[in-house]
Amino acid sequence: MGLDGHDSPPPRQLRPGRALPRLEEGMSGQYIVSHDVGTGGTKAVLVDAAGRTRHSCFEGYEVHYPRPHWAEQDPEDWWRAVTTSTRRLLEESGTAPGDVLCVTFSTQLLGVVPVDGQGQPLRPAIIWLDARAGRQAQQIMRKVLGPRVFAQIVGAEATGKDVLPKLLWLKENEGQVFSRTAKFLDVNGYLLYRCTEDLLCDWSAASATGLFDLKKKRWSDFLIRFFGLPREKFPELRRSTDEAGRLSKRSAEKLGLLEGTPVICGAGDVLAAAVGSGAVGEGEGHIYLGTSGWVGVVMERAYTGKSGIATIQSADPSKCFLLAEMETAGACLQWIADQFYRREQEDPEVANVFRLMDEAVLGIEPGSDGLIFTPWMYGERCPVSDIYVRSSFINLSADHRREHMLRAVYEGVAYNLRWMLDLLRDKFRYDQDTLRAIGGGARGDPWLQIISDVTGKRVERVAAPQEAGAVGAALIAAVGLGIYDGFPALKDVVQVDTIFEPDGAKSTVYERLYQCYREAYGCLKALYRRINTQRFAAVEK
Predict the structure, then answer these.
(1) Could you give the CA distance from residue 275 to residue 258 in angstroms, rounded to a whole number?
(2) Residue 54: which H helix or E strand, with range?
(3) Running DSSP on this structure, what letter comes out for residue 36?
(4) pLDDT of res. 80
């Protein structure tokens, strides 16, 4: 039942649009094994042809921080998690290897995995969290007439977390690794290699490097030469819906699947999650609430990025994707849970601290009695691109309790999402009344209702929002295999769980505070820079 009092839309299943692909002997092809390969672990999900999750399991791994601002992972840990979770998935669900139609992936973006000619990693993977290449980012922008001009061309200033600066860092600091590199892969490319023994990169991952021509759908030879990188080190490109190859004998044994099982390329996590939201048509958008957060919109036109909003390749080969990403969303809730609800987390009587926090939020009036929180804990990409900015509680008084601070955090993330939506409207003429909601943070009703009230948008939560990435990757594979006649058909496959409508009276309260929230950045921007320039000097070296 939606919060507006109406039943959620009933499931509508589509019949396959075309015949299933030719399978090896012994394969009936009922399910897709989809892996959502994130920062903290891999979730393996068994999805049927109607997009329904049948079973899932999780295998974790570590992030290594060898130096300040560095973040690395062992690619072998990803593969171990993929193989272990696949075997568990089959065993726990009672699925026979021959019932698996294909394997596919949704993976973290902005990673760099240099491999030799045999596909062996030459060093630990530099992942998206890694900000070591700050100096190279500055060099890139100076080469394009400075940060202001670069931002006008690309949409945002380059940062040490971006792929191109990381490649230049390798060239300057690990010359032996750079010279021995046969191909630069990302997370998805590495896992596709382990499955098929082919060195590939899908369009969505390539577009996140800054070296992909969105209009011609190929590597930009001009940009690669311009920044002094060898063209031969960039792998062959494939669409997200393409078959990367078939499981080799070695990989099939590790996974517990049949040799020859198709492997579909899949996409970066942002693009796979977009498909999993069901917002796949022209101009349709969704919000994601995980550790980070974003607003994404599917567009046919390849816009030039503006105001920190990037344009990358959609999983749909015919579309592009506008991405407005904030660095911390659910991370802000995790922070307040760790700092103010630690006792409750340790209490065996409290099954879920976040559910307890959701209940506490309902006891505070909208606006948190004038308390405003800015959710910029790790700097920000959008709506402002600023590595120096940090979080603040503004207008905190002795009358405020921890519950006020808690609700202010929920509202602060909502204000930031509203600002990004306003930029999408003003800069790109996107202004829809409805947004799909996905991600682990979307499981809580109070937060989605606050977002609806702050933005004035109808918010539709999909079923199992925390599995949108894996389900989206499975649906991408289903399109590639011909189970569905293109991405528009997926709109009817992804089911809405609950609908949240904006409350006019609450929206009025939030409108005034939202304007104050926006003014706060302008007032504090210079102060943040003065405080943090010396603290973050290592990022720029």
Answers:
(1) 28
(2) strand 53-60
(3) E
(4) 98
Contact 257, 23 (CB under 8 A): no
Residues shown for the chain = 541
Q: Is 283 left (phi over 0), alpha (psi -120 to 50) or beta?
A: left
Region of poorest pLDDT, from 307-321, 434-448, 470-484, 495-509: 307-321
- Does residue 9 carry a pLDDT above 70? no
Give domain limits for the chain: 31-271, 331-533
- The bridge status of strand 200-202 relative to strand 236-238 is parallel
Q: Which amino acid is at 120?
A: Q
Please tell me whether the overall predicted TM-score, pTM, comes out greater than 0.90 for this model.
no
**Checking phi first, is residue 287 left (phi over 0); if not, alpha (psi -120 to 50) or beta?**
beta
The 3 state secondary structure assigned to 197-253 is CCCEEEHHHHHCCCCEECCCCEECHHHHHHCCCCHHHCCEEECCCCEEEECCHHHHH
Tell me the torsion sign for CA atoms 401, 402, 407, 409: positive
Residue 122 to residue 287: CA distance in whole angstroms: 37
Name the residue among 106, 108, 86, 84 with its Cα closest to residue 36: 106
User: What is the CATH topology of the domain spanning 331-533?
Assistant: Nucleotidyltransferase; domain 5 (3.30.420)
C-alpha closest to that of 487 among 321, 282, 337: 282
> Which residue, chain included where needed, has tokens 């860092």?
169
Q: What is the pLDDT of residues 368-427, one digit of tens each?
A: 999 999 999 988 889 998 888 999 999 999 999 999 999 999 999 999 999 999 999 999
The percent of residues above 70 in pLDDT, for the chain, comes to: 92
Topology (CATH level 3) of domain 31-271: Nucleotidyltransferase; domain 5 (3.30.420)
pLDDT tens-digit series, residues 423-450? 999 998 888 899 999 999 999 999 999 9
Tell me if residue 73 falls in helix, strand or coil. strand
Tokens of 413: 């993330």
Collect all residues with Cβ–Cβ distance below 8 Å to 369 and sequence separation of at least 6: 399, 400, 404
Residue whose token pair is 């969105």: 214
Residue 293, SS3 per DSSP: strand
Count CB atoms within 10 A of the CB of residue 397: 9
- CB distance 423 to 382 below 8 Å: yes
Give the residue among 132, 123, 127, 99 at the shortest CA–CA distance from 112. Answer: 127
**3-state SS assignment for residue 371:** coil
Q: What is the DSSP letter of 486?
A: S
The answer to whether the CB of 60 falls within 8 A of the CB of 82 is no
- Answer whether 158's CB lies under 8 Å from 107's CB: no
Domains 31-271 and 331-533 share a fold: yes
What beta strand segments (E) does 308-426 contain?
310-313, 320-326, 372-374, 392-394
